[in-house]
Amino acid sequence: MSIFGNSIFGNKAAGVGGAGESTAQEGAAQEGAAQEGTVQKSDAQWREELTPEEYHVLRQAGTERPYTGEYWDTHTEGVYQCRACGAELFTSNEKFDSHCGWPSFWAPLAEGNVRYIHDRTLGMDRIEVRCGSCDSHLGHVFEGEGYGTPTDQRYCINSVSLRLVAKDAGPEGRPES
Fold first, then answer.
1. How sure is the predictor about 41, in pLDDT bands with cuts at 50, 70 and 90?
2. Residue numbers annotated as active site
């Protein structure tokens, strides 16, 4: 089943209402789901814990420049965690080369690990992907681009919003010796 339902892709995305179509009940349900299990910190705490670039992307929905991030061309096996809270979001099994300049995945590790928001910024109609645990901005998901992935979706994620824990890494995320 597509996350996009009848949204900007001709389907309605789960938890994403069309222009003016979201009911108060749907909005309250989505907000309640976003709050459940959420890491809650003050803006000052986020600013203290994150680098300026991490803060800009994760907390202000910024975007790193293409082809500059740490993971856009990485093929290391492992799990990609949210850099802000450590929640497991994606794995290398679903990562693919889209040649767009950002890490691309065809699905999240588990659907509840991320959440979706209809994003109409910059004159575009997109689906924003956020961490399901701390509500940090990760990137966007696109559908129908012809990549031939099992879901026909491309999760275009900022490297700075992720931390790769390599398959052969120890409990602290460092390679075992």
1. very high
2. 156
